[in-house]
Amino acid sequence: MKDANNKKNSQKKENVTGNSKETINEHHPESELNLDAATLKEKNPTPKGHNIKDTRKSEEELLKEKGPKKK
């Protein structure tokens, strides 16, 4: 009985490790994984109206507006 259980467990482990690498490579060939930023921009351009500027203010600007923090 122990031999049969060990065989099942070893098969499960092989399937988990063996298939994970294969499926990753099938879905993401190396050519796609090594894309630089320029080619990614070409594939996925920013939709119009989504060029949102960073409107957050730095801590220095906030201090000028509010004044020093009160303790």
Mind sketching the topology for me?
Elements: H1 2-27, H2 30-33, H3 37-43, H4 59-66
Q: Find the structural class using helix and strand composition.
A: mainly alpha
How do the SSEs run, as a string of H and E?
HHHH
Largest sheet properties = none
Please report the total strand number as a whole number. Answer: 0
Count of discrete alpha- or pi-helical segments spanning 4 or more residues: 4
Quaternary state reads single chain
How much strand? under 5%
Mean pLDDT: 61
So what's the overall shape? Answer: flat
Ends distance = 72 Å
The helical percent reads 55-70%
Radius of gyration: 27 Å
Question: Outline of this structure?
Answer:
The protein is mainly alpha-helical and 71 residues long. The chain has four helices and no strands. It is flat and about 70 Å long.
3D structure, described in words:
This protein is mainly α. The chain has four helices and no strands. It is flat, with a radius of gyration of 27 Å. 0% of the residues are buried. Mean pLDDT is 61; it is low at 21-25.
